[in-house]
Design the sequence.
């Protein structure tokens, strides 16, 4: 597994991490034993970075990771990033206060079974929160109090990602970045890298579209956000299929799949693309232990050839750009 680092985190982490939203729900049914199997499979395959949030299953994802850490004699080798803020209604800026941050982080510390959280990220709040200087002063207080080691943000908009880079002690920015969501590569990735800010790339497989396994008839469980959030009625539509209309994405993903190098899965190519483009760590989810192992194996794959990279860019420009590029 390739190892990555960013100056402001000060820790080495695996270039391929594990996104743990699915351990809490919103991706169909799950169970605790399967969650533990996925976490241990990822760890045994070299994954050291795990990303979760306090609202994933109302703490269920965090608690699963806490149980995992308790069972691992090598628990100090793992870096757990969590998020806070989505306990408030979406697009409501009021409530992002120091008192709220204390309550939320105390709950996450209990769920994870740790005294100090490795990294806490504001969880896609309204843009106004990022533009309020008090926001970052309050996060600094959490560090001084020992609740957190570092703070970062998770954003929807590239504009917000660029804005927060002005905070000298910001450790990380989490952003949607994949073959179908390329805008961060225009300016943000370079500027973040130059400043030593970690880039955590989420939704790298566009909610599974970039596995190349779906067709127009593919369906999902009623409690899976790929069923109930295609119109953005539950949360930002960019989190579901990266905001690409499903039928458009299926067709484009089939073109992507045709470019997969021999011996790779299409999902592995999609993850390697995100890593190759300059992310610090990429956080695909996994529904099974085998998926976790396959994802981790991307950390050993060679560089995608230039010709393939150019062909992937053409698919984006021809079929996807018009649906997503100006929106986020």
Sequence:
């Amino acid at each position: 597994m390739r190892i990555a680092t960013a100056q402001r985190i000060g820790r080495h982490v695996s270039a391929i991490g594990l996104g743990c939203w699915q351990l809490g729900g919103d991706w169909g049914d799950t169970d605790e034993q399967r969650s533990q199997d996925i976490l241990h499979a990822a760890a045994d395959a070299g994954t050291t970075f795990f990303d979760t949030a306090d609202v994933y299953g109302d703490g269920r994802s965090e608690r699963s990771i806490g149980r995992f850490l308790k069972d691992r004699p090598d628990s100090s080798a793992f870096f757990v990033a969590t998020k806070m803020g989505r306990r408030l209604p979406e697009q409501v800026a009021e409530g992002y206060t120091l008192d709220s941050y204390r309550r939320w982080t105390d709950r996450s510390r209990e769920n994870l079974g740790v005294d100090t959280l490795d990294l806490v990220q504001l969880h896609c709040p309204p843009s106004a929160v990022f533009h309020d200087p008090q926001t970052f002063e309050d996060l600094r207080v959490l560090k001084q109090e020992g609740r957190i080691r570092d703070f970062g943000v998770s954003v929807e908009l590239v504009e917000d990602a660029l804005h927060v880079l002005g905070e000298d002690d910001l450790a990380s920015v989490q952003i949607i970045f994949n073959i179908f969501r390329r805008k961060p590569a225009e300016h943000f990735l370079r500027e973040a890298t130059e400043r030593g800010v970690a880039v955590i790339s989420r939704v790298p497989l566009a909610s599974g579209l970039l596995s190349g396994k779906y067709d127009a008839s593919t369906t999902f469980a009623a409690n899976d956000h790929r069923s109930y959030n295609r119109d953005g009625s539950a949360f930002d539509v960019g989190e579901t299929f990266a905001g690409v209309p499903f039928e458009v994405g299926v067709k484009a993903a089939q073109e992507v799949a045709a470019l997969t190098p021999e011996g790779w899965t299409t999902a592995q190519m999609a993850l390697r693309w995100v890593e190759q483009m300059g992310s610090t760590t990429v956080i695909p989810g996994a529904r099974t232990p085998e998926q976790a192992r396959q994802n981790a194996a991307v950390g050993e794959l060679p560089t995608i050839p230039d010709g393939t990279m150019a062909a992937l860019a053409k698919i984006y420009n021809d079929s996807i750009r018009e649906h997503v590029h100006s929106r986020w």
